[in-house]
């Protein structure tokens, strides 16, 4: 169905957690990191006897009901420009509390006790996330009752379905007062099922007018090689071959970045890295000063998580599933669509295409992303009457 931006009559509120910072900051730092940008709670959540994951929690700024009833894990409430933080008017923690967890261990501010502790498989990553959520729930007795939605983008398209299956299975075994109130998952431009996603690059770029027929055949040949490698379980080879496609497209088309083919310049990543690694930011965020914020790259990006999504949906609406894509993404976009915004639904599953956005869809088109997450969680607008149980209490 066509999807237009409109005011969402919100009926629930989100919860976020921030960390209280006692470290004094210089005037310059105070400007770069305004007090309002600090998390409600933050710090480290134990996942094993020796390891913990970094988290930052932002409580809902404009909840519409009390007590809080929903708590998605979402995109951040502030924006970083080249020099300072500015308020994101289209933040996701307007109605909801937002928890950020640097997961897996070894990413972001989550430093492993030893290199050997970095998980290499989805089951361990999922077990760590559940352990971190349990540690989070233990911080405040009121957290556990709030509906929880896991959201993420790109690689999260793999570990969110795996973690969700793990959590729902654990809920079946746990006593009621130790269950996680997981009600849905939202995945943006996720690499959930690479074998299907890797075969649309040629069509997407060709029908967008970015490449010619000869280049299309070249991309198709690369796609076919990637598929063969995936079928053979050669994840390293498959990732390399897919990276070949991702770098081929900008090279022959001249687009500035494969993440958003409408952008004139690549996304600046350096300011984020420098900012997060400043002592001021670490103090304000409650991150360990001795830990460097790092991005991590996973070897198994081409492994499919389709069966985990199917397993979640097979639970007949225990948890709802939202898939959303930015149309301008060359990594994992829908093929050949030029839409203003579209919602397709089938039972507990919803698929959304966001216009004017690339791979980081939730950051690119913030008004649309905010309307989407609020409508989906609260089951209003195009998401009214979705298949699963109600999210309001
Ligand atoms: C987390 O683990 C650390 C190190 O083992 C321990 O000192 C601390 O008490 C634990 N925190 C909680 C809340 O269990
Ligand atoms: C960045 O944000 C700060 C704070 O809102 C603002 O003063 C500054 O002008 C912005 N800089 C750029 C380059 O947009
Ligand atoms: C790619 O594989 C498809 C399906 O097997 C086949 O029809 C097509 O000819 C192949 N294209 C190239 C360029 O290898
Ligand atoms: C995986 O694929 C790469 C690239 O095609 C190849 O070089 C490598 O030998 C393959 N590895 C295995 C174990 O087959
Ligand atoms: C879901 O519903 C289908 C069809 O009614 C049924 O066959 C299946 O057993 C149900 N699954 C669960 C986990 O309840
Ligand atoms: C991505 O491309 C769209 C379409 O041109 C543009 O409106 C948007 O600003 C871009 N996003 C970013 C973050 O640059």
From TrEMBL:
<keyword id="KW-0645">Protease</keyword>
<dbReference type="GO" id="GO:0006508">
    <property type="term" value="P:proteolysis"/>
</dbReference>
<comment type="similarity">
    <text>Belongs to the peptidase S10 family.</text>
</comment>
<protein>
    <recommendedName>
        <fullName>Carboxypeptidase</fullName>
        <ecNumber>3.4.16.-</ecNumber>
    </recommendedName>
</protein>
<keyword id="KW-0378">Hydrolase</keyword>
<keyword id="KW-0121">Carboxypeptidase</keyword>
<dbReference type="InterPro" id="IPR029058">
    <property type="entry name" value="AB_hydrolase_fold"/>
</dbReference>
<dbReference type="InterPro" id="IPR001563">
    <property type="entry name" value="Peptidase_S10"/>
</dbReference>
<dbReference type="InterPro" id="IPR018202">
    <property type="entry name" value="Ser_caboxypep_ser_AS"/>
</dbReference>
<feature type="signal peptide">
    <location>
        <begin position="1"/>
        <end position="30"/>
    </location>
</feature>
<dbReference type="GO" id="GO:0004185">
    <property type="term" value="F:serine-type carboxypeptidase activity"/>
</dbReference>
<dbReference type="Pfam" id="PF00450">
    <property type="entry name" value="Peptidase_S10"/>
</dbReference>
<keyword id="KW-0732">Signal</keyword>
